[in-house]
Design the sequence.
């Protein structure tokens, strides 16, 4: 009987497009666990190349490896630098509602998508 050869699965090997990256990060944000989000950002950074990520963020490679791991605890500023370097942005939506909320500064009222007052 021959033994099966196995290798560790690495998400970084499967992130081939910007859409893959965005969907992977979105799933982590929906999960809500800060350790998962940090680890996913680490996977994405490795997929893009840690040297490139270091150059784009101005952060050291070793610091990025440590911060963007499941055991890491990156500062929010680090997370924002990584997200900006990836060409992504964070977007807030109201949890548990299907309509997005917008703010109209001229009338200082919050409206739902249908134009009705929110709340």
Sequence:
């Amino acid at each position: 009987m021959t033994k099966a050869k196995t290798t560790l699965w690495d998400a970084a090997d499967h992130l081939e497009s910007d859409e893959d990256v965005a969907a992977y990060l979105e799933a982590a944000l929906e999960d809500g666990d800060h350790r998962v989000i940090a680890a996913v950002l680490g996977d994405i950074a490795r997929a893009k190349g840690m040297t490139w990520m270091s150059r784009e963020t101005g952060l050291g490679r070793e610091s990025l490896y440590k911060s963007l791991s499941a055991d890491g605890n990156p500062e929010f500023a680090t997370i924002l630098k990584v997200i900006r370097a990836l060409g992504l942005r964070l977007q807030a939506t109201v949890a548990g509602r299907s309509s997005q909320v917008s703010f109209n500064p001229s009338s200082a009222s919050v409206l739902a998508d249908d134009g009705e007052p929110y709340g």
In short: The chain has two domains: 11-88, 94-119.
